[in-house]
Amino acid sequence: MSEPAATAATAAAESSPKPKILCLHGFAESAEIFKIRSRNIRGLVGDHAEMVYLDGPLDVGNLRFTAEDFVKPKQNPFTNLAWWWWKTTGQRSELRGLGDTLEKLANVLNEQGPFDGILGFSQGAALAILLAEMLQEGSSHEYLKFPKPVEHPQFKFVILAGAFGVEPEEYQGIYDTKLNVPSLHMTGEYDTVIETKRSRKMMEVFVDPVVFEFRGGHFIPQTPECLRVVRSFLLPFIPDLEAEQ
User: Fold this and answer.
1) Which contacts (CB < 8 Å, 24+ apart) does range 39-47 have?
2) φ, ψ of residue 17 in degrees (nearest 5)
3) Which residue, 23, 50, 27, is CA-closest to 240?
4) From what superkingdom does this record's organism come (predicted)?
5) CA distance 135 to 155
6) What is the mean pLDDT of residues 135-155?
7) What is the pLDDT of residues 48-58, one digit of tens each?
């Protein structure tokens, strides 16, 4: 390759956008806490992709609620935030605050996207599944809609840890649609927060899921074995990881 051609190729490579990964924290956590929880994945990805961590729009504080159910987040990186609050009244359960979450995500997807993949932990993993369902071509569900038009393709990959499905009856039909998107599912054998069987049920929603079960609880493992699995899964989407081996 001649020098001008090589220079042009290098410039084109440098100008190519990095893959972007949307990162969603668990209940009563925050973007800053999730950065700590997922530090092994952040270290693995390094500068080869941009990991965008979001704060949930609902502040559950010390789990005491006002009459309006929620207060707005304070300027505190360790505020206890959430994507919804599961509220049961009599025989009815509902996801309070999900509308605020979908409004925020619609803005993020339109303004900061497109995102190549999504990483979710616990409630964030449950939300990641809902988003993947909403972005799947032809998706339509009465109880799960963005409040405004969203121009965003389906994710190229999904990574979930401690995932579960939402339980209100009106949402159950969502999981009848198989998700044809590459997925990696991490679940701890001794998870006492989200039972393993609940996470396994969500694996069935995806076509050909990659599963990593580990001897542990409700967290993202920091082991070399976990990193090997994540690296292998991400290589088709972030080829530059190959050079880090």
Assistant:
1) 39/222, 40/220, 40/221, 40/222, 40/226, 40/227, 40/230, 41/119, 41/159, 41/220, 41/230, 44/227, 44/230, 44/231, 44/234, 44/241, 44/244, 45/21, 45/234, 45/238, 45/241, 46/244, 47/18
2) -65, 145
3) 50
4) Eukaryota
5) 8
6) 87
7) 999 999 999 99
- SS3 assignment, position 243: helix
Which residue is listed with tokens 């990483």? 119
* Rounded CA separation 153/183 (Å): 16
Chain centre to alpha carbon of residue 4: 42
The reported pTM is 0.85
**Per-residue confidence (pLDDT) for residue 174, from 0 to 100:** 86
Q: Are 25 and 56 in contact (CB under 8 A)?
A: yes
At 166, the amino acid letter reads V
For residue 87 the two structure tokens come to 């509220």
The Cα 230–Cα 226 span in angstroms is 6
Question: How far is the C-alpha of 77 from the C-alpha of 27, rounded, in Å?
Answer: 14
CB-count exposure of residue 64 (10 Å: 0-12, 13-18, 19+): exposed
Structure tokens at 230: 């994540």
- Band of the pLDDT at 160, cuts 50, 70, 90? very high
Using the predicted structure, report yes or no on whether residue 3 has a pLDDT greater than 60: no
The percent helix, strand, coil of the chain (3-state, each to 5) is 35, 20, 45
Q: What residue type is assigned to position 19 of the chain?
A: P
Q: Is the pLDDT of residue 35 over 50?
A: yes
